[in-house]
User: Fold this.
Amino acid sequence: MRKTDGLSLVELLVVMVIMLFISIAIFAMLTSNAKITRKLENKVDAIETSRGAVERIGKDVRMGRSFGDLYGNASGGYVVGTNAALTFPCANDPLYSSQAQPAGWTGVWPPSLSTSTLIVQTPAFNANGFPMALSVGTGTPAISAAMGPQDDLSTSIYRLIADPDPVNHPNEYRLEYWNFPAATPASLPAIVKPAIVGPIILVKGIIGPKLNANSNVPTVFQLVRKKDATHPSDAPVDPATIAGAELALYSGVVVNLEVKKQDASATSVAQSTAVGGMQFEVVPIRGEFYLRNNIQSTSAGGLGT
Assistant:
């Protein structure tokens, strides 16, 4: 019977080398796939987080009555007037005129409309779906007979704040949300307000867009006015440049976010920015929304959709 010989040492070494190269190739492929997966997950996470925040803003705007503080008009009521205050709360606000800076609020109080701060007020509805009103004589200051009953309004504020860790996150901002609730329907005509909501951080790592050469703060919010005979342009504008008497005529807002997410494979300067030797991909999100309950702007030819 013929004896079967085994592998020689040379043959065994050759097989081991071949297997080593195959293992290295498989490992490299798995590592590459893992990097691609992490990159896609980071990008999807950035997109979903930013999109969720923008959609949240859009929901408030679509339900909104106006930007700023509607109670800024002290004569005749907002519905038949054209004034609104850029700052919330304004001196005539029957719900929050005496509101001190709430716990957790950082920066300037009270806030004003700007490219980094959006203030939008939405009407409160009762269980039957009808808008609620504040009666004459209620509130602080009390609503005057000349003003007549006023809308019961909830105020939402979206604003940029600098990242609290400037060493590891230089020139980055966060999108913060606050809500100052309307009076509880069951309490009317007396005014009872639920607790203020906030701060809630919606998005981190915001780095743009930076449209103002004189400021390092991103330009996130711009308001839009419908074109008419006296206003031939519908280009988005800085809310801080709008006169209070015209604010009610602005029924749209453009929201722009550029969010930074780590991307070790990014090489294009146009698509990434280097910070501390690390590459970061920039994820842009844009939304444009219009008030549906802004009677003044709709009657003046504004967009109500």
Summary: The CA atoms of residues 132 and 245 lie 25 Å apart. The longest strand covers residues 250-262. Residues 75-82, 264-277, 297-305 have pLDDT under 50 and may be disordered. The helical segments are 9-63, 295-299.
